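Weekly puzzle thread! Below is a chain. First person to post its structure in token form gets bragging rights.
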Amino acid sequence: MIDNLDKRIITILKKDSRCPFVEIADKLGVSEGTIRSRVHRMVDDGVICGFTIKTSSKNVKALVEVRIDVNTDTEEIANELSSYEGIIEVFEVTGDQDVLAIIDVESSQHLNEIIEKIRRNDNILSTRTRLILKEHFGEN
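Winning reply:
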């Protein structure tokens, strides 16, 4: 279980996963050892699943909404999509669509190839693609 200090540590690391523990400790008014042990515990507990970077690129990015057949395992579809090269994140969601995939590729042709590959799955009823025009990175 995470507490308020863990949440504040996560907020800082989401903004800059390379932020030194000493700097985090200074910002939060605790020792560097406290930050180090908290981060290691959150990694061990699976609260923090990895450290990543955000890049600015000229790539084509899109959000693809996927609606699947009622008798289909949503997790199975999500796992399959997450294995496709170019799909960087996959979410199981509620609402009219069942799965959302974020695609980051070098060309619109490559984007189209991935969408066509998704549509070839017999359990996928429809897709809706939204091109990402501009990204904004916030605190969280």
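Puzzle host: Confirmed. Bonus trivia for everyone else. The chain has two domains: 4-44, 60-131.
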